[in-house]
Amino acid sequence: MTEAPQIDYEGAWDAYAQSWQSTGQAYIGDEWNGKNAGAAQDLAEYEALIEQQAIAPYINKADTVLEIGVGGGKTAALLLKHCQQLVCADISSQMLQATRKRLGDENISYIKLDGLSLNNIAPGTIDVCFCYDTMVHMEPRDIYNYLTQIPRLMRGKRLCLFHHSNILTPLGWQKFLNDYPHNLLGRRNGTAFSVMTDAIVEKFLTHLNYEIIHKETELVPRDCIWICRAPIVSAPQQVLPELV
Length: 244
Prior knowledge:
The protein has 244 residues and is α/β, with parallel strands linked by helices. 30% of the residues lie in helices and 19% in strands. The protein has a domain of 168 residues: Vaccinia Virus protein VP39 (Rossmann fold), CATH 3.40.50. It contains seven helices and seven strands; from the N terminus they run ααβαβαββαβααββ. Strands 3-2-1-4-5-7-6 form a seven-stranded mixed sheet, with helices on both faces. Strand 1, helix 3 and strand 2 form a beta-alpha-beta unit. Helix 1 packs across helix 4 and helix 2 packs across helix 3.
């Protein structure tokens, strides 16, 4: 029996980090400047947009923030200016190394993820969960899987920001048309954009009892951003079984 295709997120992003060559940018990830998403014309404008619209209104100096998918540390650098403690989590050890090289260790911890569980993050220690420019690469079931596990990590205001692709937008649809020929027969590169919509994520959030505070579709016109509050979890969730 032929083994089912599996998306190698870890290998894809490790390879991206290892092969990355600077094209005038100081850090890996700075090449994603928001232009293709219709959000900005250059990196400085994009960083200002993220900080002013997605970080400053929601995060304060007393918060411990978990960022899922730190990449090269672009948004982590912005988050660090506003929070007390930052937990940087990523499936790619190469990306974690790049972020550590960029930001150091003061007020920061680094967590290597396995793509399935968040079990190595202590329960009840996170005030804000921030996931930006990461879910755009994750398949729907993987997104849902993370959403089931985030609530047990949360405390205090339990605030979450989730950013994902939306193929129902004009730019999202064009991205889908450009990408689909390269991702057929159940196989795709782990860095490819996922086939996701705002309606699917809304279903995920409401089914899991997240409180939706704001749905943002104009800030990054290709995508969708949710500001929501994670539900209170009264009992520990079961550890995910290993895949066979």
